[in-house]
């Protein structure tokens, strides 16, 4: 597992994400988002048990096409590429918030 600490300010293209090998967890959020910050320990712990998984943290916002292409409308949110199953269901990171 590769846990990414910082958000990528420049997002990858959808085609670049689709071409990534293995299981890729895309995390959409923003560094100023309180819920996104609160979710970090949960994500870090969860990803620690996911061998071979790549974590890509993407700063999302209005007009950013990658998040919209995955249907992201609220943060924190994520998607697990490589099977396209939802890795971070809406509501789950909010537990205890």
Characterize this entry briefly.
The protein has three helices and three strands, in the order H-E-H-E-H-E.
Relative strand content: 15-25%
**Largest sheet, strands/sense/barrel:** 3 strands, mixed
Instruction: Tally the helices.
Output: 3
Radius of gyration: 12 Å
Q: Given the C-alpha coordinates, what overall shape results? A: globular
Q: How far apart are the first and last residues' alpha carbons, in Å?
A: 26 Å
N-to-C series of helices and strands: HEHEHE
Q: CATH superfamily assignment? A: Glutaredoxin
- The CATH level-2 architecture is identified as 3-Layer(aba) Sandwich
What does this structure look like?
It is a single chain. The protein is of the alpha+beta class. The protein is built from three helices and three strands; from the N terminus they run αβαβαβ. A three-stranded mixed sheet has the order 2-1-3, with no helix packed on it.
Give the helices and strands, then pairings:
Blueprint: H1 14-18, E1 23-29, H2 34-48, E2 53-59, H3 65-69, E3 77-81
Parallel strand pairs: 1-2
Antiparallel strand pairs: 1-3
């Amino acid at each position: 597992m590769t846990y990414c600490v910082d958000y990528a300010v420049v997002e990858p293209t959808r085609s670049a994400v689709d071409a990534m090998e293995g299981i890729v967890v895309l995390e959409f959020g923003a560094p100023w988002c309180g819920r996104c910050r609160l979710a970090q320990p949960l994500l870090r712990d969860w990803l620690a048990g996911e061998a071979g998984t790549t974590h890509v943290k993407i700063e999302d916002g209005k007009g950013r096409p990658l998040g919209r292409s995955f249907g992201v409308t609220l943060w924190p949110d994520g998607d697990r590429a490589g099977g396209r199953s939802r890795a971070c269901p809406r509501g789950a990171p909010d537990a205890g918030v």
